[in-house]
C-alpha cells in the first residue's frame, strides 16, 4: 500500500456519492494493474507489443462512465480503460492480444484493433483519423433513429493533424451530430512533440473554426473529466450537436514499450508523475475518508485475481489452427441473394434513367437507406440521377455533403455499424482518391477483422471519351478489384445497371458501382418498370460464335459491338462481365475452351488492369485449348488527355479492330 499524502490535483466531488467515487477509483485501478502485468510479460518476452496508457486512465474511465452502456465509444490505442470499464471479460481481451480464437478478431488483427457490438465499442484501424468520421456516421444513425444517444470518439493530438479530423468535425458541425470528440493531448505523437505537430495555443481553439463548442479539461483529474463529460452528454442527448474536448495529459511511457522515452525531458516526466491520476485520486479519497486500507487491499486483490485467472485461461487456450476456407469465408458477409424477377411491362430508358429508377425504387424498398453526396439534394446531382429525390424522401435520407470524401465514406461506415444502409455518390469516380483510405482499409477489411458489415454502395461515375481530361475521365476499377473485401460492379446496359444497382444495395458488403458517363445518355434499352434484382458474378453472353472470345465490360462492350457490326463474318463469343468482383470465371473459361482464342478489352491503361489478370487466368486454365496467345487491349500508359484527338489516340478502342483481325489470322 502506498503512503497517503496530499493530492496534487484539486478535486471537487460536487454531489457525487461515495459509491460512484469508489467506482471511478476501481475502474482506473483496473487498467493500471493490467498494464503493470503486461509490462512484466513484455520483459519476459511473452507478449510482442504494448501501447501504454499509464497516466491517462482518468480520460478513458471518466468518459466511459459518463456515457450509457448503450452508447457507442470509439477508442484508440491507449484507451484500455474504455474496454475494462465496459466490463469486457479479461479472458477475451487477453486472447485478443495473443491472437486466439476467444479474442474478437479470430487472430486476424492485433491489440485494440477490434470492435464489438456487444459492448458498443468500435476499435480503431491503424490509420487513427478515420475513427472520427465513423463516429459521425454512428451519431447520424442515432439522430435519424431519434434515440437520444451520444457517441464519444478519441484521438491523440497527433491524429488531429490528419485531414480526417478536420473533415469529421466539419461534417459533425454542419449536420449537428451528437458526437463528443475527445482529444487526448499527451504531449507527443510517437517522438514528435506538440510544437512540431500544431501551432495554435490549444487544440480546443480549433472548435471555433468549425462552429463547435470546445472545452479544455485536466485529463488527469477524474472528477473533472467525469462530471463535465456527463453534463455535456446529458445536454447533447437533449439538444444534438458536437462538442470538442481537449484533455491535457501526458504520455508517461514510450510510444510503444520498445521505443523508450529518451527524447522526453526528465523534469517534464517528473512533473507529470506527480500528477498521476490514480495516486492523487486515491489520496483524495483517503483524505475524504471514503477509501480505507481494507477497501484498497480488497480492490487490488480482486483485480489481481481476475488478471491471473484470465491470463492462465488465455494461455491455456490453444493457438488457432489455420484453415484457408475459414479465412476466405469471412472476407465478405454472407449475402442471401433474393432473385426478384423483372416484370413484363417495360419502358425505354437511357442508362442514366435506369440508374435513377433503380436507386429510387431501392429508397422505397428500404426505409433505412440513406444517400449522401455532393450536390445530390435540391440540385439533383451533377448528372441529375437524384433529381426529385429530396422531395420524395426528405433531407434526412437524401443528404448534401460538404466536399469531404473521406469523412463521408467513414460516415457511411458508421451508419452501417448503427444498422443503416447507405449509398455514397462520388461526383466523379476520380475523386474517390480523396476517400481511398477508408474504402480500402476500413470498409474492405471490416468484416474479415471483426465481422462488422460495411453495408455501403459507392456510386462511381467514370470513364473517358467525353473530352474531360485527366481528372474527370478515369476508369479506376482496378484500384479496387485488387482489394479483398470489396465487390466491384460495372454494367454496360440500362437493364443491367438497374438490376445490379438494386442488388448492390441489398448486398450487405461494400460495393463499388461503376457507371460509365459516356453511356449515361447514349445507350437506351427497354427496362422493366418495376423493382427487380440481378445476381452478381454472372457474365452476360451477348453474342455466341466459334472463332474467338471477346471479353470486356463497361464501354468496351459497346466498342466490341460496333466492331462486330462492321464485321458480320466474325464468329465471336462476346462476354460482358457485368461484375468484376465476383468474377464469372466459369463463363470466361468455358467460352475460351470452345473458341480457342481470346481477346480481352479494357478501357483503362493496360498495366496492372483486369485484362492482365484474365489473361493469366486463361493461361493457367486454358493453355491446351488455345490456338493463339491471349491478346490484351487497353489504353496508353499515360494519364488521360483532354483534347479529343489526343483522347482518341489514348483510348484502346482504336487498336481493338486491328488486334481482333490479327488474332483471328494467327
Ligand atoms: C496514417 C498514419 N500515419 C502514421 C502512423 C504511425 N503512428 C501510429 S501512432 C502515431 C502517433 C500518434 O500520436 P497521437 O495521435 O498523439 O497519439 P498517442 O500515441 O500520443 O496517444 C503514429 C505516427 C499511423 N498509424 N497512421
Ligand atoms: Mg499524443
TrEMBL record:
Judging by the UniProt lineage, the source's domain of life is: Bacteria
InterPro entries attached to this UniProt entry: DH_E1, THDP-binding, Transketo_C/PFOR_II, Transketolase-like_Pyr-bd, Transketolase_C
Q: Which residues form a coiled coil?
A: none
> Which cofactors, if any, are listed as required?
thiamine diphosphate
Per UniProt, residues of the Transketolase-like pyrimidine-binding domain are 349-522
Keywords of the record: Oxidoreductase, Thiamine pyrophosphate
Q: Which Gene3D superfamilies match?
A: 3.40.50.920, 3.40.50.970
**What PANTHER family does the database record attribute to this sequence?**
PYRUVATE DEHYDROGENASE E1 COMPONENT BETA SUBUNIT, PYRUVATE DEHYDROGENASE E1 COMPONENT SUBUNIT BETA
Functionally, this protein is described as follows: E1 component of the 2-oxoglutarate dehydrogenase (OGDH) complex which catalyzes the decarboxylation of 2-oxoglutarate, the first step in the conversion of 2-oxoglutarate to succinyl-CoA and CO(2).
This chain's protein is named Thiamine pyrophosphate-dependent enzyme
